[in-house]
Design a protein that fits this description.
Elements: E1 2-5, E2 8-11, E3 20-26, E4 36-45, E5 49-56, E6 59-64, E7 70-74, E8 82-90, E9 95-102, E10 116-124, E11 127-128, E12 137-141, E13 144-146, E14 150-153, E15 158-165, H1 173-186, E16 194-200, E17 204-207, H2 214-218, H3 232-243, E18 249-256, H4 267-275, E19 280-286, H5 307-323, E20 327-331, H6 337-349, E21 352-356, E22 367-374, E23 380-382, E24 386-388
Parallel strand pairs: 15-16, 15-18, 18-19, 19-20
Antiparallel strand pairs: 1-2, 2-9, 3-4, 4-7, 5-6, 5-8, 8-9, 10-11, 10-21, 10-23, 12-13, 12-22, 14-21, 16-17, 22-24
Helix pairs in contact: 1-6, 3-4, 4-5
Length: 390
């Protein structure tokens, strides 16, 4: 049997003692959707619900086995219709479903604007704040207040490249601890997440495909051995380049002491690439046994690089991470590496996503400064500081 309810096609099974009724409650009927969108459904049945499948435009987004019946899906940025379908199946084999078609915006003339998405971490006294609402946020672009069109919180899907340094300085327990950190990060992935592992020294030692299967990401780790020099800048650039082709929240997690000895590219080259990207960069900086301040490199010298060069390298990398809304974590004990990777994943799970179309976009290559404010005392927010208008 089928009926229409508030613009949503609702269907449920009949014949047994109880049917299955499914209603899509979010997004609302007639709502235009872009970017990351929350899809929610109510499922009613006298039987135990064994599985609820969410589909967008014919592809399965996620399958859930317990409530809440809610997922986040990427709709892209094109002005187009989307067909949402939610299919519920009981343990006894009864099936119910609901379908919702979201409309496109009807316009006489289309002008393309780049959606800006901000990934915001909110804390109070060092503890993350998880109960903020859309109305608590204000976004300013070059000083002009912007209308927040997209809002999500909690578990938003991500695509992450994990970079692990396997140069000669990482041999032995250091490399083992680093690979344990990668395992800790990938074990925290969920259904819509994707990851890629890049292990590097003076070349790419190991590269996996983008996948959400941890076993694929971690295959071959047992054979990795440390050796050679370090090409951190080259591989950071590569990671950002690879993420350009991915949708949604893009993340680079890099483990390194920051001491690049062999890259062709400079840290300034990577900074420029990061400014062209919306990717977050998290730097887990290994300082095991180091003395002195966190910005001071060891006394390294070569025919073409000296201590001043390494100080500038570290300063620029730090600027890149902070400017993009990521975070630098200093690790002084190998036992802290795996928890540091796991903490990055926890932070990503607890971020807010704010989407807006800049009111002053000109495509002139100008650097736009962005500021996010929260209307609650004592709450501090961290997000990227700006973007290139290109």
């Amino acid at each position: 049997m089928k009926r229409m309810l508030a613009g949503v096609l609702v269907a449920w099974a009949v014949g047994a003692e109880a049917g299955v009724e499914v209603v899509i409650t979010r997004p609302a009927a007639g709502e235009v959707v872009f970017g990351e969108v929350s899809i929610a459904a109510e499922v009613t049945s006298g039987e135990h619900i064994a599985k609820v499948t969410f589909m967008v435009d014919g592809r399965i987004v996620r399958e859930l086995t317990r409530p809440p019946w809610e997922v986040v899906a990427s709709m892209g940025q094109d002005n187009t219709e989307h067909r949402l379908r939610v299919l519920a199946r009981t343990a006894g084999g009864s099936v119910g479903e609901a379908t919702l078609v979201t409309p496109r915006i009807v316009v006489d003339e289309e002008v393309t604007f780049e959606l800006q998405q901000l990934y915001v971490s909110a804390t109070s006294d060092g503890t993350r704040v998880l109960d903020l609402e859309k109305g608590d946020f204000e976004v300013f672009d070059e000083g002009d207040r912007q209308e927040i069109l997209n809002f999500a919180r909690g578990d938003v899907a991500l695509t992450a490249v994990v970079l692990v340094d396997a140069s000669l300085s990482m041999q032995g327990p250091r490399l083992a601890a680093a690979l344990a950190g990668a395992r800790a990060f990938f074990s925290g992935m969920r259904g819509l997440d994707e990851g890629k592992l890049l292990i590097y020294n003076d070349h790419t030692e190991l590269s996996t495909p983008f996948t959400n299967v941890p076993e694929v990401l971690l295959a071959g780790l047992a054979g990795v051995k440390a050796g050679g020099g370090t090409t951190l800048n080259d591989h950071l650039y590569l990671a950002l380049k690879l993420l350009e082709q991915r949708q949604g929240r893009r993340v680079v997690v890099v483990l390194s002491d920051g001491l690049d000895a062999n890259s062709v590219l400079s840290a300034s080259d990577v900074l420029l690439k990061a400014r062209q990207s919306q990717a977050l960069v998290y730097w887990i900086r290994l300082r095991e046994g180091a003395k002195g301040g966190d910005t001071e490199p060891p006394p390294l010298f070569s025919a073409w690089r000296n201590a001043a060069w390494y100080r500038e390298q570290l300063r620029t990398l730090d600027e890149m991470v902070v400017e993009g809304g990521g975070r630098v974590t200093i690790v002084r004990e190998l036992s802290e590496l795996a928890p540091a990777f796991a903490e990055v994943m926890r932070e990503l799970r607890e971020q807010y996503v704010l989407g807006y179309y800049p009111s002053n976009q000109k495509d002139d290559g100008h650097w736009h400064r962005v500021k996010v404010k929260v209307g609650r005392d004592g709450v501090r927010v961290r997000t990227r500081e700006g973007y290139l208008d290109i």
